[in-house]
Amino acid sequence: MAGSTEILVQNLTYSHDPSAPASLSDINISLPKGSRTLLIGANGAGKSTLLQILAGKRLVTSEGARILIKGCDVFRHSPPGITYLGTEWAMNPVVRGDIRVEDFLNSVGGYRHKERRDRLLDILDVDLDWHMHAISDGERRRVQLCMGLMQPWDVLLLDEVTVDLDVQVRDDLLSFLKEDSQHRNATILYATHIFDGLNEFPTHVTHMRLGSFVINATPWPLPPIDPLLDNNESAPDPTLFQIALQWLREDRVHRQELEKGGRKTRGARRDQAVPSSSEAFYKKYDYSH
């Protein structure tokens, strides 16, 4: 059961570039121990940046910010038991070398966690004789998940790592993570864009938009008619997919309103009367017709 605060962020503002607008603005969130929270938001909302900061991978220098996991500052007194799994791992040339999966897992301590490793090998349907350089992105992702999850964790930070998995493996993995979280009272913070099959997974949901929380950690499921949802004509018991889709549509409308006020626009430039220099160049040397 959820209990004391496990993840606490207060007054966090962060920018990748001091000369650019903040990527995260005034982030405040408190997640109880044992919770499983989904970060919902469009691409560029700040989900990955927040997870990387929590994992200690991006240094925060802004005054007044507090970033605590298990009561410890993630930069000054980083606590044990934090596992971060992100998409960038699969692009690392080291994990694309000619090494057998069994040897690879043993090299990172698989022999010390044989029971959990073997269960994950079955769930993720991994062949120990695969060679890392000769497998698909989805298979390589399975190896990453086995490697990252075979050691018991207290806090698990997941950033889109199920995107390459087929639907059966993903469902089995999420069932394992939910069971593991419940059994050990461990905490999960998970950013994803795939909401099918997730209805029974989270204890909380959040909504991020353009670097800020629109909706902070809120218990899931939401009430059938909820002030958080503008359109109460949706399904009596809306699914996570329906809610996420509505929130993302609202995000786009909000951004388009900001564009009318001067924010840089996206999409086609239909009001561009004069061709750009690149368009003029390519038209001149276009021999396809």
From TrEMBL:
Region (Disordered): 257-289
InterPro entries to which the protein is assigned, alphabetical: AAA+_ATPase, ABC_transporter-like_ATP-bd, P-loop_NTPase
Any one GO molecular-function label of the UniProt entry: ATP hydrolysis activity
Leader sequence residues: none
UniProt keyword ATP-binding, yes or no: yes
Alphabetical keyword list: ATP-binding, Hydrolase, Nucleotide-binding
Biased composition (Basic and acidic residues): 257-272
ABC transporter domain ranges (all copies): 7-235
Transmembrane segments: none
Family matches, as SMART domains: AAA
Protein name from the UniProt record: P-loop containing nucleoside triphosphate hydrolase protein
Organism: Russula ochroleuca
